[in-house]
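Cross-posted from the bioinformatics board.
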Amino acid sequence: KNEVEQSPQNLTAQEGEFITINCSYSVGISALHWLQQHPGGGIVSLFMLSSGKKKHGRLIATINIQEKHSSLHITASHPRDSAVYICAVSKGGSEKLVFGKGTKLTVNP
Amino acid sequence: DAGVIQSPRHEVTEMGQEVTLRCKPISGHNSLFWYRQTMMRGLELLIYFNNNVPIDDSGMPEDRFSAKMPNASFSTLKIQPSEPRDSAVYFCASSFYGATEAFFGQGTRLTVV
């Protein structure tokens, strides 16, 4: 079993829809990361969080440490949000990142 | 800052040849990471450095892979000899030690034929 599991694997939405991507992990962590990878291949860090909730524009990330679960929400989705979203965790005491398999999001106009 | 710079962006080589991938981290960052991405396995950490010293190389697949960081502004990942199963996208990332948010380069797409 992977240490970091994401769901769903693939997600198709219509422009304007509210989107949720889930991440569960099975190890002790110091932080959880949400990354975005566009079709061109570049990877951008969206959030790093260890508790609570963070918001950047239309993106919201939450984490529940007790349940070992995080969600990434996108409000008012847009076709430019189409990308692969990757959850990763820093295991306690290390900078080493362990990655989920990613969620491929397609937002249709 | 121009961000993390990797070269080359694409590399096609024949099996058995030596391949060297290069990375220039963001100035001032003291942690550097090499990752590999494949369809089958997703993203995996190969090795990371703090202050130019290798800290964890447990992800390096085998002796054919080696990485160096001779100074704070340059790192290489070398594969010798290369094999078709090494075909992947290799990412370099850098960060401030302890901050853990990493900044990624654009990646090098390696194809070994």
